[in-house]
């Protein structure tokens, strides 16, 4: 993956609610990309913090699934199945990256993020409501939840990256 460490877009510091939420979410997406920049395929697959099975590539695959689930299935009412389905043991497979292709994973994530952005842009307001089972969720909630999801995993990514090659930073 090419070195794209400085490609984060500064979030809106003064803006309406939609601009603020979407720009902070994009900042979090860009942060994950930055944490993965400049690494080899092997380094992206590396489970660098024992005994955890987390890897940077697994995190990228995971957030692609989370984006798909919340934006396409919940907000947009689609029924899009997972990119990385459960295995025979019933375990989600996005974190099983031994033979995973990083270029494919990043492509899926980028395309999924683009679809998510399009869904948000097309929504008439943040009050648009989707459902997961019987539970209703507003687009506002989904955006806030996605910021939290990325922020938590970016903390993991920071530790993984430091263990791989010593790179630290925001």
Measured by DSSP, the beta-strand proportion falls in under 5%
E-strand count: 2
One letter per element, helices H and strands E, the order comes to: HHHHEEH
The name of the CATH topology is Four Helix Bundle (Hemerythrin (Met), subunit A)
Could you name the CATH homologous superfamily?
dinb family like domain
Q: Looking at the structure, what is the overall shape?
A: globular
CATH class: Mainly Alpha
Number of helices: 5
Largest sheet: 2 strands, antiparallel
Radius of gyration over all CA atoms, rounded: 16 Å
Low-confidence region ranges: 1-5
- Overall pLDDT confidence: 93
Total domains, how many? Answer: 1
**Structural class of the secondary elements?**
mainly alpha
Helix content: 40-55%
Amino- and carboxy-terminal Cα gap: 19 Å
**Name given to the CATH architecture:** Up-down Bundle
Describe this structure in words.
By secondary structure, this protein is mostly helical. The protein has a single domain (17-165), classed as Four Helix Bundle (Hemerythrin (Met), subunit A) (Up-down Bundle). The chain is 55% helix and 5% strand. The protein is built from 5 helices and 2 strands, in the order H-H-H-H-E-E-H. The protein has helices at residues 17-36, 41-45, 56-75, 102-122, 139-165, and strands at 129-132, 135-138. The protein has a two-stranded antiparallel ribbon with strand order 1-2. Residues 1-5 have low confidence and may be disordered.
